[in-house]
Amino acid sequence: MDRAGDVQRLQRLLGGEHTAWLLDRARRRMELGKPLAGTVTLTDASQDQRRAVERLLGRRAGAGMSLTVSLDEIDAMLRTSGASPDGLDAAVRLLVGDVSDRVAQAAAEAAVWSDVHAPLDALVTRRPELATWRSWLNSTGMLRRVATNPDAAVALVADLVRVLDVLPSAGVALGRLAAATAGDAHALDDARPLATLSLAAARVLRGAPPAGDGSAAERRTAWAAVGVHRDELSSSVLCLGLPGGVATATGRILAVAREAGEPCVLTLRQLGRDRADLGVGDGLVWVCENPIVLASAADELAHRCPPLVCVNGQPSAAVVRLLDLLAIGGAHFTYHGDFDWGGIRIGNGLRERLPWRPWRFDVRAYRAVLACVTGGELAGRPVDATWDADLRPALEHHGVRVDEELVLADLIGDLANGHPADTDGSARPGSSTV
Predict the structure, then answer these.
(1) Domains and CATH numbers, the chain
(2) pLDDT digit string (tens) for 288-320?
(3) What is the pLDDT of residues 260-277, one digit of tens each?
(4) Per mean pLDDT, which range of 169-173, 206-210, 299-303 is the poorest?
(5) Positive or negative CA dihedral for 324, 326, 330, 332?
(6) Are strands 228-229 and 376-377 parallel, antiparallel or unpaired?
(7) Pairing of strands 228-229, 172-173
(8) Which residue has the higher pLDDT, 51 or 102?
């Protein structure tokens, strides 16, 4: 075969300026894995383009503004004329070079990425609670967005599985977790690929959507919910009235603060991994959501306030550690939070870790307080209260948010009495029944 002659002849037939559109249409079909059959149409064809097709086919190309050409006719002409015995497909390749098969490439690429994702699928099989996160990875293509190529993604997925296999944690510093799972103490720093993917999973594990609001506070909250803290000093917990003791420095700090009737801020480091000499034993621990409750209790009750812990929104690692240590020591708990969807979620999260009974925080209390105060508009995504099936319907029905600040007097009164009160205001015994 005279390849040079073939190319020259095909250039005259198909390689000119006025048949370039036809060659391009054929090439694109081949790239998409479509057969070179049927027709192609060029709208607003010029006279030069029309004459070029007439010369190619040896007949008039019709009238009108658009120009329609049969690819089957061109294929047959090329074969019978000898210009391209193997037809239009061979002619296109001879003129433009190798034509990539995009469909085959896409299929091969999809197979590669499927293999990359396989360890994550195995992880979700072991831990179905991560299914929402796994679906989010698919819908957003996040893994492919943060990994530069499949090889990088394989290494990233291996690190990711190691991170998630140890979450939630009883308490670990972020840098330590990164070093232990990825061999790089900064691998979980903000905006790093491993942090992006791990944080999304952490949010799902705490019952939130995979995508956060982008704020530093939200990222700290998400990590804290699975027992990960930035360091042992930045995570803290606010408490009041814990008796403390003399056996440890933390116990002595608590004892001095209680005697003075002052709130105490404990860091995660101060709580350590032992019981920290908290002095509560099997007594009742009161838990509130907002610092205003604890501050007001210090103002009005001082050293007479019973043990009170503030979670201050989503519990930090230090809050979780303190509550865990108190539970290990035999303490039982009563909890009050904001009557809104965020408050319900915090209550649900606490209840997953330790049993508590409502402290004016059930549907009876909600209905009672609506008769006395004017709350704000309830907004956000509804959620069931795991301790009271009737609370969500009541919140949805009334559509009113009640913050703890609006019921401070009742809460301080309960603390002064030393017993959580029923909705009608009568004191209940302090023994725990969960």
Answers:
(1) 3-100 (no CATH), 104-229 (no CATH), 236-417 (3.40.1360)
(2) 999 999 999 999 999 999 999 999 988 888 898
(3) 999 999 998 888 755 578
(4) 169-173
(5) negative
(6) unpaired
(7) parallel
(8) 51
Say how many C-beta atoms besides its own lie within 10 A of residue 23's C-beta: 18
- For residue 423, name the pLDDT band (cuts at 50, 70, 90): very low
Mean per-residue pLDDT, 21-30: 89
The alpha carbon torsion through 225, 227, 229, 232 (nearest 10 deg) reads 130
Alpha-carbon distance 107 to 110, whole Å?
5
Residue at token pair 């005697």: 259
Contact 202, 167 (CB under 8 A): yes
**At which residue do the structure tokens 């998409």 appear?**
32
Burial label for 295, CB within 10 Å (0-12, 13-18, 19+), is: middle
Element (H, E) at 67: strand 67-70
Q: Is-contact 404 286, C-beta < 8 A?
A: no
Provide the residue type at 75 as one letter: D
Is residue 362 within 8 A of residue 339, CB to CB? The reply is no
Q: Residue 165 half-sphere exposure, CB side, CA atoms within 13 Å? A: 14
